Amino acid sequence: MADLMTYAGPAPADGPGTRTGGVPLVPAGFAWPECTECDGAMQFLAQVRLGGDLLSIFMCQNDPGLCDEWDATAGGNRAYLFGADATEPAAVPGEGETLLEEVSAVEVVPVDAPAYPQAAAEWSRRTGRPRSDVLGHLGGEPAWLQFDETPACASCERPMDFVMALEEGHDWHTKINFGGGRGYAFRCAPCRAAAFLWQR
Ligand SMILES: [Zn+2]
Ligand SMILES: [Zn+2]
């Protein structure tokens, strides 16, 4: 079984649910993340509702490919695990590549298949919709494009829990830039920590 995240049309830019693009909902006092490589403001990619928590993903796009933005720890991306107090749209910095050009709603569709790639293919076959309308999947096992890169929690050093795989998106004009690859998000709930990486 795989819980596919499928494209569900345009979404409000400040909606509380799982979406790609728009403006992230954040707790009071939140400071928009900056890339440690180029010092530019990062781009908000997606937020994922996990019960009362909200996992939020950012990545540098000021110098695509030059800021180690695929790496979980190099400082070219940033993931947060917010709590129920993440209710206000963040203040968006005036400079840098900060927002995606489209806000996409996500509908989670359980599909009975051995693994994510088969589930995505089965959903596409059954619905007649393009494979690119599958925006990723929630939970289960990550389908690695390369070797297993499950990050360790920076606080407790245990392997983090896989939360979501994220595809580039349904429209190549507005898609996220993973170099044609796929993103992977993780959390350590006890440490209130999150991490993100991508592979191709
Ligand atoms: Zn950068
Ligand atoms: Zn931890």
UniProtKB/TrEMBL annotation:
**Where do the segments described as Disordered lie?**
1-20
Please give the superkingdom of this protein's source. Answer: Bacteria
Identification of the protein by name: DUF1963 domain-containing protein
Species annotation: Dactylosporangium darangshiense
